[in-house]
Amino acid sequence: MSENQKQVRTLQGRVVSNKMDKTVTVLVERQVQHGLLGKIIRRSTKLHAQDDLGANEGDVVRIAECRPLSKTKHHRVVEIVTRANV
After folding, report:
1. What is the DSSP code string of 22-60?
2. Cα–Cα distance for residue pair 46/8, rounded to 1 Å
3. Is-contact 15 58, C-beta < 8 A?
4. Among candidates 76, 83, 79, 29, which has minimal Cα distance to 59?
């Protein structure tokens, strides 16, 4: 990797809302270990992402960090991994 290329952090999640104009809400789930009990628990985060590809609800998408596009939008949809069964 050369000097002027940055490592872009990508995440994968499910689209839970596409009601906004060119914006989707993506639910990203991860599994973490409970600090005291040691049990594996599921944590989730909802992120807003710029959508130029036309993702629908239920689609699994890959998102990448980018510059702030609005107050709450700091990611963009890179690719649609799987389409939802409609």
Report:
1. TEEEEEEEEEEE-TTT--EEEEEEEEEEE-SS---TT-E
2. 19
3. yes
4. 83
Retrieve residue 8's tokens: 């872009």
Q: For residues 26 and 13, is the Cβ–Cβ distance under 8 A? A: yes
| Averaged pLDDT for residues 66-83 | 96
Lowest mean pLDDT among 4-8, 21-25, 40-44, 46-50: 4-8
Q: Structure tokens of 39?
A: 């049990």
Contact 77, 47 (CB under 8 A): no
Across the chain, what does the average pLDDT equal?
94
pLDDT score of 48: 98
